[in-house]
Each structure stands twice: as C-alpha cells, then as structure tokens.
Specification:
With 211 residues, the chain is α/β, with parallel strands linked by helices. The chain contains seven helices and eight strands; from the N terminus they run E-E-E-H-E-H-H-E-H-H-E-H-E-E-H. It has two domains: 2-70; 88-210, Arc Repressor Mutant, subunit A (Orthogonal Bundle), CATH 1.10.10.10. Helix 3 crosses helix 4 and helix 4 (108-115) packs across helix 5 (119-128).
Length: 211
C-alpha cells in the first residue's frame, strides 16, 4: 500500500507518495487539496494508496527536501524508487533527468541516450513529471536548445514560465560539461537557452550578452 503524506513547508504545500521509504511520486500545490490532488494524479495505475494522518520521518524529511529544491537552494540527491510501482524505464529517465544541476540544461535526446530510450518518451515523462521538484523538468530542452514545452503545454505562456525558471537559475556558466553521476549526460549552460529565446523574440528583456 502506497502512503501519501501532504504537508506545508514555507509558502507551498508538498505531497509525498512512498512505499516503505521508497519514492513513488512527489508534487506541490498552493494549498493542501491542490498538493494532494497533484501527487495522487502522478500515482501509477493499479497501485493502491492511502492518505495518512501522520507522516513518517521519511515523508517529513522529503517534504523539507522538496521545499529546498523548489526554492532552488540545492540540487537533487540520489533517490530510491519503489520498483513495484515505478518501471525500470521510467526510473532510468527520472534518475537521468534529476542529475541536471542548477545553471544547466540537458536535451531530451541526451537523456534518452543515457536512459536507453527515445527522446519522445523522455518528453512524455517530463510533460507529466511524477517527481516534481526532484526532477527539474524545466531544465530539459530540445536538441537545438529550444524550450519546446513545459508542463505538457507548448503555448507562449508555458514557454515563458519555463524561461523564467531558467533565468532565475543562471549562474554565468560558459562551457558545457559531462555529469558523471548521470552516466555521461552532457549538460549546457542555461545562458545558451536564454540567448536563443531572446533571438527568437520570446523574451525581449534577455540580453544576448548572457551567452
């Protein structure tokens, strides 16, 4: 049975679904109900779950971690997924994407190579992201460093929201690098994405000098 715990940390509410201390799904919301709905929507079909009245120490510590991750205070540590609820392929994609550090982005195709799947599959996983904010789906972009989409949407408002999150994480990095913990995943400075968006007129306020 999957346990679902919802708790407030800072200005946001966070939901944690786990089985025996192994993650199944995480999510956030503006209030308790929104967070509960969001995390339950991420649960795999066919897995029974229950909303618990008292969160375990594991669940409470995860909520604190989620709050720090959403605030951009740190990068995601390694996490263990429940093998009975999360398939091997999905787990591979989530682990690879979670390794993209602040200030960088990775491509759908790059993550696909590491996870042993196709870019299309990575896009589908990122569009629903069952482990937000552990998996920073906003840091995954197209092969040409275009924004592509965000939260399952491709409209201008969604793209600008993704761009704003990346702008907030810009650290002035110049060179790409290999993230060893993700099995050789190449990551690129977010400044390249910001500059491309500026050239395409998505955000006129971004200066090309950032690249």
């Amino acid at each position: 049975m999957i346990s679902v715990w919802v708790e407030k940390a800072g200005p946001r509410w966070f939901g944690v679904a786990h089985h025996g201390g192994r993650l199944v799904a995480t999510a956030s919301g503006e209030n308790r109900k929104a967070a509960a709905v969001a995390v339950r929507a991420c649960l795999p079909r066919g897995c029974d779950h229950q909303m618990v009245k008292e969160g375990s120490e594991y669940a409470r510590s995860m909520v604190r971690l989620l709050a720090r991750l959403e605030a951009g205070d740190e990068d995601a540590p390694f996490f263990e997924l429940c093998p009975d609820c999360v398939g091997e392929l999905l787990a591979s994609v989530l682990h690879a994407a979670s390794a993209v550090p602040r200030g960088y982005v990775a491509t759908y195709g790059g993550i696909a190579v590491v996870a042993g799947t196709e870019a299309r599959v990575v896009g589908q996983v990122m569009s629903t992201n069952p482990l937000y904010p552990i998996v920073p789906c906003h840091r995954v972009v197209g092969s040409d460093l275009s924004l592509v989409g965000y939260t399952g949407r491709q409209d201008p408002a969604a793209l600008r929201a993704k761009l704003e999150r990346l702008r907030a994480e810009a650290r002035g990095f110049v060179a790409e690098k290999i993230v060893g913990g993700a099995g050789g995943l190449t990551v690129y400075p977010v400044e390249r994405v910001i500059a491309k968006a500026a050239r395409e007129g998505l955000d006129a306020g971004v200066q090309l000098s950032l690249w």
